[in-house]
Write a structure and sequence with these properties.
Layout: E1 16-19, E2 22-24, E3 32-33, E4 35-39, E5 42-47, H1 49-52, E6 61-64, E7 69-72, E8 74-79, H2 83-87, E9 91-92, H3 99-112, E10 119-124, H4 137-143, E11 148-152, E12 157-160, H5 162-168, E13 181-184, E14 190-195, H6 197-204, H7 212-228, E15 231-236, H8 242-250, E16 257-260, H9 269-279, E17 287-289, E18 292-295, H10 324-336, E19 341-345, H11 348-359, E20 369-372, H12 378-387, E21 390-393, H13 408-413, H14 415-418, H15 424-429, E22 434-436, H16 447-456, H17 476-482, H18 485-490, E23 508-511, H19 520-525, E24 528-533, E25 536-540, E26 544-545
Parallel strand pairs: 1-6, 2-7, 8-15, 9-10, 10-11, 15-16, 16-17, 18-19, 19-20, 20-21, 21-22
Antiparallel strand pairs: 1-4, 2-3, 4-5, 6-26, 7-23, 11-12, 12-14, 13-14, 23-24, 24-25
Helix pairs in contact: 3-4, 9-10, 10-11, 11-12
Length: about 550
Amino acid sequence: MHLPDMHLPEQRTADLLLHGGLVRTLDPAHPVAKAVAVRDGTILAVGDDHELRWLRGPRTATVDLAGATLTPGLVDGHLHPVLGLETTAGADLGGVRDLRGLRDRIAAERRRAGPGDWILGWNLDPNVFGEDPVTARVVDEAAGEVPAFLTFADAHSALAGSAALRLAGVDGPREFGQGASIACDPAGRPTGHLLEHEAMDLVRLVIPAEPEARRRARLRRLLREMAAAGLTGGHVMDGDGIELVGDLDAAGELPVRLRFAPWCMPGDGEPGWQELLRAQRQHGELWRVGGVKLFLDGTIDGGTAWLEEPDTRGASTRSFWPDPAEFSAAVRFFAAHGVPTATHAIGDAAVRHVLDTVAGLPDTGARHRVEHLETVPDGQLRRFAELGVVASMQPTHAHYSRADGGDNWSRRLGAPRAGRAWRCRDLADAGATLVLGSDWPIASFDPRRVLAGARLRRPAGSPEIEPVLPGQALTALMALAGMTTHAAEAAGESAVAGRIRPGRRADLTAFTVDPLRAPADELAEAPIALTVLNGQITHSTLSGNR
């Protein structure tokens, strides 16, 4: 039993008492309990139902867990809740499987479009094009003169129709400083395929902006849905919407704890770095800026990753930073000021460069991370634990590839590198701190899907799909740790979060099944019984009593 005092004065009774369930504390000293008491947003005691009855006072809210399993609150290690609102505007194209289906969806959106409207879509699978070049021909056939802008599933590339390109003034190739490009045919005419954010933003900037009131309402609804799915927090890998989130927090409407890492981009230089350093002071009750995000490459599907050897089409040969040494200088600057960095590094050369950079840093207490790590050579695995670098991965991204290697991602990498795909288990076995997340809107934010995908290596509920490298599956405990204890370690919050222990934050998630014992497919569909943030219930299907 974790109980500081059996006979407590009235002012030490609990605000909230949860009992009648199985408590998976993830505390090695006391791994299992039956009840938890909370006061002032902090866990007061952990033990059996009869032991904690002394903490019940006249103002204590009690909740019978009814056999549910309580765990530390789930944290998504990589997501974009505000930036994702822009990405997810329009039609979800995730169900489109071929060009005919794409043509039909665009035609349907055209029929719904009014004067001045755009056709917008997101989550487009590049495998729709098979081995054919990616062009906007099918978009133009279906959309006609209605401007269309479709974002691919990786959110690092898009397809713009001819009408959209004309509105944006895009009529040929351009030079960019951050690995972006406008795909053009041999005559220099844009094909509609835009690679990386600088190129995509040329068109995004002419799309009519969403009214602020509607954007705020969409964010509020999204965050409530995240809480209902069991999330109590998220590591936000951008700086978008900080003011909007702050407004929700001040109004008591923020149901998840958010930690922002604003972007540091090539060319920012020390003035930009200083501005990001000052931003680290920003915080509210349930949000804060806590780090910076950098990019070393793009995506394998788009040919903008940074690989040690070119992909099968001769692409993915360069860093997102024109001078990788400038990236290293930026990381050294932030490390010297105790600011943690998170680096988007998908290709093997990008992963190596991050590790090489961190290897030369003095220990200032800042915890550095690598995001995505889609293909990692054997020789780099142990370096994560040796250097204390966090591996932040998204298990459900593996679902965009196929076990037979017939998908665009695998074909572009080639079999040897595709055979090192999403090495979650190898990194865990090598002792790395392994944080799991969704990268929403790239994949569903539902943490049950993330936990299940980490164990199955295929989409939950689809046993007919062959797992991708099943030897990389995590155990149920490894997966749960990736969204609790390891998420806390990555944020430098192990002393206050990640386990159910007195003195820790009262951020808690209750599953209707035991996430360590239930089959992964069942876990993915099991309702969330309760979500508690900072001692306050943000979602519940349970009844309370006094």
